[in-house]
Write a structure and sequence with these properties.
The protein has 293 residues and is mainly alpha-helical. The protein folds into 2 domains: 3-149, no CATH class; 196-290. Helix content is 73%, strand content 0%. It has 19 helices and no strands. Helix 1 (3-19) crosses helix 7, helix 8 (107-120) packs antiparallel against helix 9 and helix 15 (225-236) packs across helix 19 (280-290). The longest helix has 20 residues, at 126-145. It is globular, with a radius of gyration of 22 Å.
Length: 293
């Protein structure tokens, strides 16, 4: 696939995420859960496209040496797995969501973390642990080679993991603002720490009424594009400052209600003015619902 074809395919993926936000959010939520269901679906998809994969994995696990995954890579290459998977895009909802998740989601980090969980399980034997460790190395290497992650991304991720494992989160949290200060203007720094309540441009009584309405709305299970519609409605009502960025809002809402509200990328896509015009009636209905004046 040449650069033009690759760029065009990325645009197709972005459009699919817009048109199928609920399906993508459902898949991402499944992959973020503690269940193995998502990974079983991915494994099933791989076996469906490359029937030899199941036997190859079984053979690998039962072999005397499982220190690398070169033979698995060669099998996928020989069977043109990438081409077959791309061929399923927009035909198979699971395959489509999986492809978008690999490109735009927290895919590689999730797979690394899940691999570590399996390794730490008492039911995992030594050979399986070696195979998973080798596969983890492959994930990281491939993510860098494909340009989906950088070495610096992985180093920062690894350092953050060490902070958590060493119970030094407080030290890290106190140090972070100082490290970020040279790259951040005072206004941006204030905006970063604003809570959702502090963002709302209303008096305390009406602010609490609005927060109750937002909580009620989120508790109905909405996510993804419907969260974006809510944000657009709040902006239309003038309840949010113009200086508040999409990232700050996403973080503030997620933090306030401690709930999965969809992926940030799928939400941001619907905050684009051109896209939002397609859903004017939905946004107008929410403007009426959230109006507390």
């Amino acid at each position: 696939m040449g650069q033009k074809e690759y760029d065009a395919f990325r645009e197709r993926m972005k459009q699919w995420m817009l048109d199928n936000a609920d399906a993508y959010d459902e898949f991402e939520e499944m992959m973020n859960s503690q269940s193995d269901v998502g990974y079983q679906k991915i494994m099933g998809q791989a076996i469906a496209l490359v029937p030899k994969y199941g036997k190859a994995i079984s053979k690998k696990i039962n072999s005397s040496y499982v220190g690398d995954t070169l033979d698995i890579e060669e099998l996928f290459s020989a069977e043109n797995l990438g081409i077959k998977l791309v061929g399923q895009f927009e035909k198979n909802s699971i395959a489509s969501a999986m492809i978008c998740w690999l490109f735009f989601g927290r895919s590689f980090e999730n797979m690394v973390e899940r691999g570590e969980e399996i390794i730490s399980s008492t039911g995992t034997n030594r050979f399986q642990k070696i195979l998973i460790a080798s596969t983890t190395k492959l994930f990281i290497s491939k993510s860098i080679n494909l340009g989906l992650r950088t070495r610096q991304d992985w180093e920062e991720y690894n350092n953050f993991r060490k902070v958590i494992d060493s119970n030094q989160v407080m030290d890290w949290a106190l140090e972070s603002p100082e490290k970020e200060q040279p790259q951040t203007t005072p206004l941006q720094k204030v905006n970063k720490v604003l809570s959702l309540k502090n963002m709302i441009l209303l008096n305390d009584e009406k602010k609490n009424m609005l927060l109750d309405k937002i909580e009620e709305y989120i508790n109905t299970g909405v996510k993804g594009k419907r969260i974006a519609f809510m944000i657009l409605a709040l902006r239309q009502l003038g309840y949010l400052p113009e200086t508040t960025s999409d990232r700050q809002l996403f973080t503030a809402i997620k933090t306030r209600f401690n709930s999965y509200i969809g992926s940030d990328k799928s939400i941001y896509a619907y905050l684009d003015n051109g896209v939002s015009k397609q859903f004017k009636s939905d946004i107008d209905n929410l403007t009426t619902y959230f109006n507390v004046n």
